[in-house]
Automatic annotation (TrEMBL):
Residues 1-163 form the N-acetyltransferase domain. It comes from Chelativorans composti. This is GNAT family N-acetyltransferase. It is an enzyme of class 2 (transferase). Gene3D superfamilies: 3.40.630.30. One of its GO terms (molecular function) is acyltransferase activity. PANTHER family: AMINOALKYLPHOSPHONATE N-ACETYLTRANSFERASE-RELATED-RELATED.
């Protein structure tokens, strides 16, 4: 398994991966029908195609070399010193094998000179919160999942100070 930059050819496999992983991660929290809607709108092929072409971003996949994409991550630089990790997913059957760590390390190192990486996690996703805490992220606040008006699904905002480096 290796982490590499995503390509147009990966998008159908990434979409299928997101459908599977998001159902496993959020199905019990948000409901399976809501997850299908989120995947079909927020993770449609056209949306991910825009990620590929987004300036100041990194879109990577974990590739097993046999046509399977078992993980993905996407981050975008927001300011001169801050990057936002908006997606990091690993196929449930491949979790706890280092893929999430490898994907996270790749996006953390992809932005020279940037000082902070931020992200949001649904508070009920305690395994994800613990994963990021083990990687050096600290909780900096609370909010609502996908800016929901009724805030039924609170989130935690997390941040990590990155090691800065220059060419």
């Amino acid at each position: 398994m290796w982490v590499r930059t995503a390509s147009e050819a990966d998008l159908p496999a990434v979409h299928a991966l997101l459908a599977e992983t998001m159902q496993a991660a959020y199905g019990k929290i948000l409901g399976p029908i809501s997850v299908v809607g989120i995947v079909s709108s927020m993770h449609a092929i056209d949306v991910m195609r825009a990620w590929l072409n987004s300036p100041f971003s990194e879109f990577v996949v974990a590739d097993d070399g046999n046509g399977s994409v078992d993980g993905m991550a996407f981050a975008r630089q927001l300011t001169d010193d801050t990057v936002r990790l908006s997606h990091l997913y690993v196929r449930p059957s491949e979790q706890v094998q280092g893929l999430g760590t490898a994907l996270l390390a790749e996006v953390e190192s992809a932005f020279p000179g940037v000082r902070y990486m931020t992200l949001d996690v649904i508070k009920d996703q305690s395994a994800a919160v613990r994963f990021f805490e083990r990687k050096g992220y600290v909780v900096t606040g609370e909010g609502c999942a996908w800016k929901a008006a009724n805030c039924e699904k609170p989130t935690v905002s997390m941040q990590k100070t990155l090691e800065t480096w220059a060419f």
